[in-house]
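To make this tangible, we now present a fold written out as tokens:
***
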Amino acid sequence: MNMAHSSLSTYRKKRDFGITSEPRGEVAHAGKALAFVIQKHAATRLHYDFRLELDGTLKSWAVPKGPSLDPKVRRMAVHVEDHPISYGGFEGVIPKGQYGAGTVIVWDRGTWVALEDPREGYRRGKLKFELHGEKLHGRWTLVRMHGREGERQEPWLLIKENDEEARPASEYDIVEDLPDSVLTKPKANTKNTKSTKDTKKAVKAKKARSGKREEAGVPAGAVKAKLPLAFAPQLAVLVDEPPAGSGWTYEVKFDGYRLLARIDGDDVRLFTRNGNDWTSRLEALRDEVASLRIASAWLDGEIVVLDANGNPSFQSLQNAFDARKTSDIVYFAFDAPHFGGYDLTRVPLAERRRVLRAALERNPSGFIRFSESFEGPVRRLLDSACDKGLEGLIGKKADAPYASRRSPTWIKLKCTKRQEFVVVGYTDPKGSRTGFGSLLLAVNEGGKLTYAGNVGTGFDQRGLQSLYAKLKALDTVKSALEAVPRGVKGHWVRPKLVAEVAFTEWTGDGRIRHPVFHGLRADKDPGAITREAAGTIKVTHGERVIDPASKATKLDLVEYYARVAPHMLPHLEGRAISIVRAPTGITGELFFQKHLPGQSATIEIATAEALVAAAQMNGIEFHTGNSTKRDSSHPDRVIFDLDPGEGIDWATLKEATTLTRKMLDLLGLESFLKTSGGKGLHVVVPLTPKWNYDAVKDFSELLVQHMSRTIPKLFVPKSGARNRVGRIFIDYLRNGKTATTIAAFSARARPGLGVSVPVAWRELSGLEAANPWNIANVFDRLKRQRADPWKDYAKTKQTLDAALRKLRQA
């Protein structure tokens, strides 16, 4: 009991257990398995509480930005008081007035293994360990920093070690991609073993229930569900031009802060788009939301302050927060992804908005308004919005579900270019101005801050003084920029402030022209600010079904390529691309395109915008050659396409693939595996580009002939369907100069729209087909994937010299 008092005394002093539902806790007895838990804590500032079981309690650190899988990213971790072991299962809302008031979910949990003496490591400030969680895996280090004297809480760093679980931050952000609780998982689908008659009855009953729900005001597609504690909003894609075609509705793009309202009976909480709990900052609005008399909901909308003309004023909104006078803030609600005990995320937008409008009309409020939508010629709507001084329009597909991510079913059309920038410094004032002259701005590029220009207009006198005080508090000697351009001088600040700036265009050297300051963004993370580029998503005939088997539409395919681009582009980079196009869908005529229209130039795809544009032009499959434009005469890979003939089952194909790998291992060549998305498997051998195409093709043919002689019952050296009956032809013809192979993450123009996916060799035994993933489910794999199975591909340097000698001797 003395131990409990000493290790948990600080924890208990901070809480009134008669009010909060957090556990009081006792010190646990030592056991074999040591637990860890990470709790996502949406207090005034969203953070992640990282807890490791040690000596009967949970040693705890507050990690503001959450863990990163990138070893180069060091996350600040503030050491806080020990928590009881029982706290590891706590999810809920800590009441207002209590320490840490806000919403807590269990973001990850599992066990941890110390790689060195944990007590000694904890004492000296360097704790090395391995995590076995539902989201986090691999080796990590917590290291204590040398804090300032008299600092109340010790600053530590949480660092991912460089192992197979590590992933670059530019490719993957686990905090953003996996935002939800691990305690609330969707139920797995089970196989239906009932008779056809029973199935028909079930379908009929389901339709009847659906009809009853609609009669009761619940739309078809709604799913009865517990209200989630946390929820991530859908984000819009910036476009240059309005989309063609029908089915779009438009709303005003409000000049304010995105806000989500969680209503659970009398408990009403307000969250920013990043999950920060702003309930205490918006008490008047909280009371207005409570007065709606909605029993249960997540509402999505934007908060603004209206000017004398009734238009949103971002500067007025910021001033309201600075002065702590937020009673005039108006909430424009535009969506209801959860309502009345139902999950509406799969319900079409138009139906969700019908539910929301009805709720707001039943309980009218001057401070909570329905965001009206407009239909008509979009260009005329946009011109009208710009003439009124608005920021622009948001376009939404009326039949689309709600997606908690950035999705092309929501687009934004801006009157002027406008985005956020990180403030990295300021210049001295000139003339009669006081405080500072201009702000020095930057954006994140590849994890580093790059200079983007300065802004010196748009400030009023009050704003100048208030902002100058904030700048002085962040003064530092060293610039946060990766490189300070010649001629750029000023006073540097720590990159903590985010400014919203309007401007006319980007210059060729990455600077903004004619900038105007609009205010600071307290709801944006400086680390997430990048150059916002308009996409090329102008989807025509998006509703057209391109695959009758899966009912996938053209818009589904365009959205797939927009999402998968970060994973797919490295496989396309620098290579000539051939595209299989299907203007009327995969059941119609297919065209194989190797050159740009009307030109002899080959197709290259280097950006997400170019990939999406190709999909908009009915491109389905993307094939690549074996060399890059840096050295088009010398291939940098050999590909062996294992294509099963008639009579070859899946188990036999896997066996043949394993034998191919073993043969390459004997030759001293490292190889990588991917599914084809069709019937076969691809074994890829990276090369240093040294040999010409003829030599590489000759080598591949020699290897195939050797394997056919060695195992003639399994392998055949000739192509052709007649030759492959009951045997496998390893297609070495893929290595010719003009030959191409389906690219990783490309869809296939076949029923189901399968996807070619890189896999680890250890996964081969568990693969159930060559096309287990398609455009609908491949993202489930990417979310669960601990590490890139081709992580070492680019680092593999090898030639065919020694392998050819061994092969000739065999």
